[in-house]
């Protein structure tokens, strides 16, 4: 069965697929069918095994992986062979088990030993378990219709119903709070407090403030995660438009909600670097390293800033650390890039 998340937030679908010729052809045939979901184009994101070069693109895709409500895995032999297959599926299943995302495995092409995969126990699509390329399907379009129809019925409609239920719960909570406040205000003892000459005026302010704070906390608590994800997504969109100052402000608001959010620190560091606020960027990257010492991207980006500032010793140290972490994590391209930059830096200093 599909896993239904507990948290209600703006819908985002994140498709992960291999960029092999066969899979890319099938992806292009699937994409027009998604129009029937009637979602804004910006709600559907794609990630392939070959993304544009640069740390920014990897960080962008990591953000989608960490914030999407629905993660669709387009499974094939080439999908299993992706360099970061293990990292992506591990993170997707972590969010699945935490109740923060739907995982929808789709059988594009046959693979061996499906049940042994991290997502092997989840319900897959097409609904009959036959891959899109199977001879069972007289037309592949029929398979795509089955896939999209089930995503709509078993995921999006369930999610919309969950959002309605969450809204009802919030409305009931608000009604209870206002009823309590009205009873308190109408209480005779409250009236006597207001009329008492011996009570300090500040006490009334404190009482009112307590009521306001309680009401505010009750209203805001259910939407804190939604607000966090909105700030991260808005920051990302502004960063893509080169609106670095506005992006920085969004990441800062995200950190006010979650002071230990690694993505917010990492992306704010990038915005600081583009704004030439280099020391502030270093501070943000350093904070990421304190929170997640295995985060190679933070070392890589901090090294770039150190280079800009002419601090070669620190840059070399960070490039070497990033290269070691990428090697341990099996991230081949980034490992090579870190070593190349380290070599170029060492050569230029001789």
Question: Would you give an account of this structure?
Answer:
The chain is of the alpha/beta class and 350 residues long. Among the domains are: 13-160, Rossmann fold; 259-349, Tetratricopeptide repeat domain (Serine Threonine Protein Phosphatase 5, Tetratricopeptide repeat, Alpha Horseshoe), CATH 1.25.40.10. Helices cover 63% and strands 6% of the residues. It contains 14 helices and 4 strands. It has helices spanning 21-30, 55-67, 77-80, 85-97, 140-186, 188-195, 201-220, 224-240, 244-257, 262-274, 278-291, 296-308, 312-329, 332-349, and strands at residues 13-17, 44-48, 70-75, 102-107. It has a 4-stranded parallel β-sheet with strand order 2-1-3-4, sandwiched between helices. Strand 1, helix 1 (21-30) and strand 2 (44-48) form a beta-alpha-beta unit. The longest helix is centred in the middle third of the chain and has 47 residues, at 140-186. The radius of gyration is 25 Å and the shape is flat. The N and C termini lie far apart (61 Å).
Q: What labels would you give this structure?
A:
14 helices, Serine Threonine Protein Phosphatase 5, Tetratricopeptide repeat, disordered N terminus, alpha/beta, 4 strands, flat, Rossmann fold, 350 residues, 63% helix
Summarize, please:
The protein is α/β, with parallel strands linked by helices and 350 residues long.
- Helix and strand string, N-terminal first? EHEHEHHEHHHHHHHHHH
Give a quick account of the main beta sheet: strands, pairing sense, barrel closure.
4 strands, parallel
* Spatial order of strands in the largest sheet: 2-1-3-4
Strand content: 5-15%
Evaluate the radius of gyration.
25 Å
Share of helical residues: 55-70%
The CA-CA distance between the termini, in Å, is 61 Å
Secondary structure class reads: alpha/beta
Low-confidence stretches: 1-9, 51-56, 193-222
Mean model confidence by pLDDT: 79
Per DSSP, the total helix count is 14
- The counted number of beta strands is 4
What is CATH's topology name of one domain? Rossmann fold
CATH superfamily of one domain: Toll/interleukin-1 receptor homology (TIR) domain
Corresponding CATH architecture of one domain: 3-Layer(aba) Sandwich
């Amino acid at each position: 069965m599909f896993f239904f998340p507990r948290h209600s937030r703006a819908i985002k679908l994140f498709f992960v697929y291999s960029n092999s010729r066969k899979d890319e052809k099938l992806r292009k045939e699937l994409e027009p069918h998604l129009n029937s979901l009637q979602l804004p184009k910006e709600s559907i994101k794609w990630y392939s095994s070959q993304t544009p070069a640069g740390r920014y693109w990897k960080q962008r895709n990591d953000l989608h992986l960490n914030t999407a409500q629905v993660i669709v895995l387009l499974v094939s032999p080439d999908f299993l062979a992706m360099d970061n297959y293990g990292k992506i599926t591990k993170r997707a299943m972590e969010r699945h088990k935490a109740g923060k995302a739907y995982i929808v495995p789709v059988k594009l092409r046959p693979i061996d030993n499906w049940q042994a995969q991290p997502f092997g126990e989840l319900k897959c699509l097409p609904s009959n378990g036959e891959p899109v390329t199977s001879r069972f399907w007289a037309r592949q379009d029929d398979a795509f219709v089955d896939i999209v129809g089930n995503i709509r019925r078993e995921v999006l409609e369930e999610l919309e119903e969950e959002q309605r239920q969450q809204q009802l719960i919030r409305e009931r909570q608000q009604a209870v709070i206002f009823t309590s406040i009205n009873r308190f205000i109408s209480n005779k003892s409250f009236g006597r407090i207001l009329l008492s000459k011996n009570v300090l005026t500040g006490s009334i302010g404190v009482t009112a403030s307590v009521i306001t704070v309680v009401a505010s906390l009750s209203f805001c608590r259910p939407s804190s995660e939604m607000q966090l994800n909105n700030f991260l997504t808005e920051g990302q969109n502004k960063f893509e438009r080169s609106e670095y100052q506005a992006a920085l402000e969004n990441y800062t608001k995200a950190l006010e909600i979650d002071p230990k959010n690694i993505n917010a620190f990492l992306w704010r560091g990038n915005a600081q670097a583009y704004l030439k606020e280099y020391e502030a960027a270093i501070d943000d990257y350093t904070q990421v390293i304190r929170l997640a010492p295995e985060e190679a991207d933070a070392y890589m980006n901090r090294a770039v800033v150190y280079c800009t500032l002419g601090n070669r010793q620190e840059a070399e140290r960070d490039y070497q650390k990033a290269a070691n972490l990428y090697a341990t994590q099996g991230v081949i391209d980034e490992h090579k890039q870190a070593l190349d930059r380290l070599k170029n830096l060492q050569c230029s200093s001789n």
